[in-house]
Amino acid sequence: MAFRIRTFLTDETGAVTLDWVVLTTLLLATGLSVIATVRGGVENTTLETAGQLRGQVVLSSFGSDLCSSGLAGLQALEDARVAAGGIEPIDVATFIQTYQSSLNDSALVNEYSRLAENGGASDSDGWTRQDTLLGLMECDMVLRGLD
To answer: What is the DSSP string of 69-130?
Structure first.
């Protein structure tokens, strides 16, 4: 009986399995802790990037002259116009969202042409409300790939 107990205590055939279970558990726990740590940073970075990209106009071709200042530049010009005493301020982001849903592509191009013919950018009077409207339509055309 003492021989069997001594043999049982010195037998190492099951120890390898126990080592693998412990190592696999530690590896899994390490992976989960890394994911939990990195997840918040990735989510924050994604939200920040999305916020920065929102409202940016990506030109579909390098030769396009439409919407050259982008939506942020257009909003800055409109804010300067209003600060100089201009009336009926335009919120660029709201206007572009409304316009995108209200006109189809051909109606947008026709409206842009009509407005441009009635007097586009006027150098002598500075930036006008009509210039902002034309700029918004240009940016909308770029967003739709109509440039």
So the answer is: THHHHHHHHHHHHHHTT-SS---HHHHHHHHHHH--HHHHHHHHHHHHHTT---TTT-S-HH
- The whole-model pTM stands at 0.51
Query: When comparing pLDDT for 80 and 97, which is higher?
Result: 80
The answer for residues whose C-beta is within 8 angstroms of residue 118's C-beta and 6 or more apart is 130
Cβ contacts of 90 within 8 Å, gap of 6 or more: 78, 129, 132, 133, 136
CA distance 139 to 88: 20
Residue 61 has pLDDT above 70, yes or no: no
